[in-house]
Amino acid sequence: MSGKEFFVNRYEKLGWKYEDVVPKQAIRINIMNADETRVVKRLESLGIELERVPFLEHGYWVSKTKFSIGVATEYLLGYYSIQEAAAQIPATLFSELKDKTVLDACAAPGGKTVQLANLMQNTGAIIALDVEKVRLAALANHLERCSVTNTIVYHLDARKASQLKTKFDHILLDVPCSGNFAADKDWFKRRTIKDVERNAELQREILAEATKVLKDGGEIVYSTCSLEPEENELNINWAIKELNLKVEKVNCYGERAKTNIFGKQLDNSVADCRRIWPGTTQGFFVCKLKRANAL
Amino acid sequence: MNVIDEFVSKFGAHLSLKKSLIIENKNRYFLLNENLRRLVDKNFFYAGAYLGKIKGEKFFPSFILLKMIANSKATKIYVDAKAAWLFICRRDIFKQGIVKIEGFKKKGAYTLVLNQYGECLGFGRILCDLYEEIGKVVIKNVSDIGDFLRRER
Q1: CATH 3.40.50.720 is right for the domain spanning A24-83
Q2: Do B45 and A151 touch (CB under 8 A)?
Q3: Do B145 and A143 touch (CB under 8 A)?
């Protein structure tokens, strides 16, 4: 229940033919800190070739650069973040962010936290959690570099979010996952179906806790960079049945998610989630959820 | 809080920060807004605008605080592109790299270091008369934004 052949065979059953891919490096302009056109011009004057990502508002692929884009002055000034293109999608799916109270439940190293702060224009409040203390320093550095001022960070397991005694308008669950081969060349050697099942269980626990701290009418955006249906469609199907959540339609990059997984028929609304197979981006899965009884 | 006012005054500057919104956690100082003040719990790791930390007797400012000082009336020097790049690489500044000086220029005082676009790259200590010394280091690098890279090594 492991190895390249095992997983590739699963992907084929889900309708995707395996191919070796190298996702393009991408950046996101922090529009809160700088004028986008000006930043792009400055980077181009340094010999960095950028290509606008067609499905993102502030995202660019780095087509060519002679040096690491993580050392430019503009990076150190917080004018952009290095963030994979598909990973830039989840934060954009919330309907309204300004002045809201938002939970970023698995926040480190902070790419999506900074993106949320940008979309919120540093208004409202973001509560950012991470269970791994060593990753909090990277998160704090990211917030400082990008002049984020609306965030409180706690060293806390997302499964204990109700300890915060706060209800949230929006919750971002970019949950810990098994990852995918496009972002890790040794992925097939390292991963087994047991890892996938263990991660899927952890993700369900996080989803259940998030539901407890979600305001009525609030939104949860759930995402993984896993290709495995146990962490994606099957977990969302479980959340529909067990947590009384419903999938909201989203208008974003990616194909409709699967509603038949290896012969198991899922709720039809699972198709409104988005599945992204590796190509110019890494593999990804994203969806927006609300309480089923919410207006 | 006095430590922040004292640090800011070394640039001949003054910031009106509301004392009740500044909180300290393990020798690190943060500026909150009313909303965050209401939400924050004592066990936080980071909150609002990070202002800096005290280590030993010394105050180490954040780059958010330096940017706030740069937006006020303060001692500043503007440097050319070459000096700016070297400064980010932790190097000191030679007289010939300076293109403009604002504020007081007393030996031993702190000065913010800004690039050609007026962006704050860090701060340094004035070593000698900025108008007279040629071919010598005149600003000693104390802290620069290249620190974001060095911290994560």
Answers
A1: no
A2: no
A3: no
Q: Of B32, B51, B69, which residue sits at a domain end?
A: B69
Other residues' Cβ atoms within 10 Å of the Cβ of residue B28: 19
Q: Which of B25, B71, B88, B148 to mutate to test the interface with A (most CBs of A within 10 A)?
A: B148
Q: Computed over its alpha carbons, how large is the radius of gyration of chain A? A: 19
CB contact, 8 Å: B8 with chain A?
A: no
- Asked if B44 has any chain A CB less than 8 Å from its own CB, the reply is yes
Q: Which option is the CATH number for A85-291: 1.20.272.10, 3.40.50.620, 3.40.50.150, 3.90.550.10?
A: 3.40.50.150
Let me know whether B42 and B90 are in one domain: no
Contact A152 B43 (CB under 8 A): no
Chain A residue whose CA is closest to B43 = A154
pLDDT tens for each residue of chain B, 153 residues long: 589 999 999 999 999 999 999 999 999 999 999 999 999 999 999 999 999 999 998 999 999 999 999 999 999 999 999 999 999 999 999 999 999 999 877 888 999 999 999 999 999 999 987 776 678 899 999 999 999 999 876
Domain region containing B129: 75-151
What pTM, to 2 d.p., does this model score? 0.96
Q: Can you tell me the distance from the alpha carbon of A64 to that of A167, in angstroms, rounded to the nearest whole number?
A: 44
Q: Residue B114: what residue type?
A: L
Q: Where in chain A is the domain with CATH 3.30.70.1170?
A: 24-83
> How many independent structural domains does chain B possess?
2
Chain A environment of B149 (Cβ under 8 Å):
70-71, 76
Sign of the four-CA dihedral A42, A81, A113, A252: positive
Mark whether B41 and B100 lie in a shared domain. no
Which segments within chain B are labelled E, that is strand? 22-25, 28-31, 46-47, 49-55, 58-61, 76-79, 93-94, 98-102, 110-114, 120-126, 137-144
Q: Model confidence over A232-254: pLDDT tens digits?
A: 999 999 999 999 999 999 999 99
- pLDDT, tens only, A83-129: 999 999 999 999 999 999 999 999 999 999 999 999 999 999 999 99
Are residues B93 and B65 both part of a single domain? no
> Which residues of chain A does CATH 3.40.50.150 include?
85-291
Res A25 pLDDT > 90 = yes
Backbone angles phi, psi at A83, to 5 degrees: -150, 125
Average pLDDT score over residue span A68-83: 97
E strand or H helix at B59 = strand B58-61
Tell me, yes or no, if B148 comes closer than 8 A to chain A by beta carbon. yes
Name the residue facing B39 among A71, A144, A166 (closest C-beta). Answer: A166
State whether B45 and A155 contact (CB < 8 Å).
yes
